[in-house]
Amino acid sequence: MIGKIAPADIQKLIDENSEHPRTCKKIMIELKQIIDLAISDDMLDRSPIRKIIVPKARKKHKRPLTDEEVKLLEKTRFTPREKLYITLIQFYGLRKEEALALSPADLENGFVSVNKAIVFKNNRPYIKITKSTAGERKIPILSIHKRYFAEIVRKGGLYCFTCISSNDLITEQSFRRMYYSIMKKLKLTARKNKLPEPVGLTSHIFRHNYATMLYYAGVGVKDAQYLLGHATSSVTLDIYTHLDNENKAAKNQLETYLKSK
Q1: What is the pTM of this model?
Q2: Which terminus in the chain has less CB density within 10 A, N or C?
Q3: What domains sit in the chain, N to C, each tagged with a CATH number?
Q4: Span 176-218, pLDDT tens digits
């Protein structure tokens, strides 16, 4: 009977699932619906879930590229548009929607100019402004890419990323096929070179890798915030603080190891 459910019973259930905060949250949502209904039907006088302690979800930090993934990217041969996409997200930290919206004109004058983004609706692409004014930025082109980008500008065209069969702006399906092709080639290269195959390699991991490179290059938080297009410095600080903590932990482990010798 629902009337016999005690807060201790519910807390025990939550504690048993404490390693899975999202599961606990779902349990509480379901229980609340059942209990609210029971109260409205006079089956309960008060809710037994009012003082239940639910574990908070731990924020997951995005990872950068692994050393093996960097090697695979260097060894793998990509099509021109695959290579361009990887270059933009790996070395310039563009979001997927920002990279796909670029035109050759956005790669002129020594900068990658970010001022728009792509959105997909029912597979069709639409161009919109960046989600915030902070998203608009000019990222200096690295010297190793100047000739490469100049060649893309010279070829011209309305868009950098188009469908295979036309000069129309890339569709969502076409992008998925392109990214699938990138991953397939990376896995084949891994097998040939007896390296670990990439797992869970998303576009955002490349962007986080760029943020990590800025940190290790000594770029200040304010400058990194601008280059990444973060609306507030708190997002950038979160990444930098996490990397600081990782470095401290590694240093402490090394010192402990050396002292034991």
Answers
A1: 0.75
A2: C
A3: 1-58 (no CATH), 67-245 (1.10.443.10)
A4: 999 999 999 999 999 999 999 999 999 999 999 999 999 999 9
